[in-house]
């Protein structure tokens, strides 16, 4: 993704609402992200995200994963379809399925996921609830490179919010979401532009090893 003469091709994988897709699409439209969304693909044919993508004029694909039986075969077929769009980068934006290691392997270093916690804390589901149950003072979101380990790949960037007295899981989710949108746009830009890349289990940004995740700044940049 170092060739600045061409527009980086991004495929977005979704299962739900699609607000993160919207954020990417809006950033591209506003000239804040140099990329093109070439496909939105879902394992949920009725995901609202697909309707949002179609309304935005983006090509979509859907294939129900529930009850598909052979998990690895479904993953293989789904990722083969995604590959036909020839993405440079695949972004999991609320994609609620754990893909098989073999399906991920060809995309190592070219697949990002956004997860609503400060990884490595709280991989998996119900992160807002778990943060409150633990009494944490801080919560946040992470964008990481996808590896076979669930929510376990190298973390590129994070956004943080304080946990306030009386917060409910819904409060945390609502307060975090706008930052997730900024974080995802900035992280996709960092990778699509070639500024940051995965190398083995590490991340290089500007040729330097990243020793801690980049942090979302007030001006929506990463530092
Ligand atoms: C986001 O909170 C994301 O972090 C989580 O699922 C949610 C997706 O939201 N994995 P949306 O579908 O992009 O609106």
Low-pLDDT ranges = none
Percent in helix: 25-40%
| Amino-to-carboxy terminus distance | 20 Å
Number of helices: 6
Shape: globular
How many strand elements? 11
Whole-number tally of structural domains = 1
What this model shows, in words?
With 223 residues, this protein is an alpha/beta fold. The protein has a single domain (9-215), classed as Rossmann fold (3-Layer(aba) Sandwich), CATH 3.40.50.170. Helices cover 31% and strands 24% of the residues. An 8-stranded mixed beta sheet has the order 3-2-1-4-5-6-7-11, covered by helices on one side. Strand 8 and strand 9 (202-205) form a beta hairpin. The chain is globular, with a radius of gyration of 17 Å. It starts with 8 loop residues before the first strand and ends in an 8-residue tail after the last strand. The structure holds 5-O-phosphono-beta-D-ribofuranosylamine. Residues 16-20, 49, 93-94, 114-116, 141, 180 line the site of 5-O-phosphono-beta-D-ribofuranosylamine (GRF). The site of 5-O-phosphono-beta-D-ribofuranosylamine has 13 residues, from helix 1 and strand 5.
Brief account:
The protein has an eight-stranded mixed sheet with strand order 3-2-1-4-5-6-7-11, covered by helices on one side. The longest helix has 24 residues.
What attributes characterize this protein structure?
single chain; 223 residues; alpha/beta; Rossmann fold; eight-stranded mixed beta sheet; 31% helix; globular; binds 5-O-phosphono-beta-D-ribofuranosylamine
